[in-house]
Every structure is written in C-alpha cells, then in structure tokens.
Specification:
With 175 residues, the chain is an alpha+beta fold. 26% of the residues lie in helices and 45% in strands. The strands form two sheets. It has a seven-stranded antiparallel sheet with strand order 3-4-5-9-8-7-6, sandwiched between helices.
Length: 175
C-alpha cells in the first residue's frame, strides 16, 4: 500500500513539473507547456513566437503567441458585434488570396486552468486544394491582452487538442 501511494505521488508530481516554455519579449512573458517534438520559432512572419508541430500529413500546424503589452479587459458586451466584423474581415481576406470561406466557429468565452478569461473565435477556409482551420484566442492575462492564433489543416485534427491544451495551460506570470 505504501508503495502504491509513493508511486502515485511520483506520477502526480512529475506531471505537475512538466517543462514550461518561457516566451519573453519587451511586451511581457508567456508560459506554455513544452510539447514533445514541437519547435519554437522566434520573430517569424511578424509574430514574436510561433510553435510548430512535427510534420504530419505533409503539413506542420502552428500556434503563435503575442503578449501585446496592452493593459485591457475585453468588452464582453461587444463581442457579438465584433464577431460579425470578424466574419466580414475574414471573408474579404480569403477572397484576396483566391480562397473560399467554408464556416466560422462561433465566439466562445471560457476560463483556462490558470484562471484567465479566454475569448475564442474560428474560421474554416479552403485555399487551393488545402482545407484550413484557424482560431484566434484573446486572453485577459492579469489585465494584459495575450493574442494567440492557431492554424492547421483538416487532416491534422489531433493538433486541435494540443492547441486547446496549450491555451488552457497558458499563463503570463506576475504582472
């Protein structure tokens, strides 16, 4: 019985000490769990941090993290209006790259495991032969706005679970 309890404590404590990535720049710090086989890119495509999945189905999914440095709280009363504007902007954008809008994930608000408010919205589109899913997350992290954006192909559905886990565990440390 003592051995069972000791083993259980070791397993629980090792998962609690999972390695975190510290993403820091002049705008602030972001902490996310390190994912096995994923690679971190810095200052790419106008984003301070992009986390790339291993290649699956010929594609690498990615999720970017930006500590905006803005001290804001998202106005929940306006999110319905903002969703209509989001849909319009995404539809216009995909037309400029000769893509096709397919669907939108409705706005959702939830609290992550660190207690931060997460505002989530998504866009599904086709570009040439590829079918993409993009999600934007706006996270109120101790009064600072963290912007997170994920992109994957339809075939890489499993990466959606990993994106959700990263956002769920995201923290920004002390303000």
């Amino acid at each position: 019985m003592k051995m069972l309890i000791l083993t259980l404590m070791l397993v629980l404590s090792s998962s609690a000490w999972a390695q975190l990535l510290k993403l820091a720049d002049a705008s602030g710090k972001i902490f996310v769990p390190q994912q096995k086989g994923w690679e971190l890119g810095k200052e790419m495509f106008g984003m301070p941090f992009i986390y790339f999945s291993p290649q699956v189905n010929g594609q690498r999914s990615n999720i970017s993290f930006t500590a905006t440095g803005a001290d804001v709280v998202i106005d929940l009363g306006n999110m319905g209006h903002d969703f209509a504007a989001y849909k319009k902007l995404k539809t216009e954008w995909v037309a400029t790259v000769l893509g096709k809008p397919l669907d939108f994930s409705p706005y959702k608000n939830w609290r992550n495991a660190q207690g931060h408010d997460v505002h989530e919205v998504g866009f599904e589109f086709q570009l040439e032969e590829d079918h993409y899913f993009e999600k934007s997350y706006y996270i109120n992290c101790t009064g600072r706005l963290i912007y997170v954006k994920s992109l994957r192909t339809k075939e890489n559905l499993n990466h959606e679970k990993e994106f959700q886990a990263l956002v769920n565990e995201l923290d920004c440390g002390a303000p």
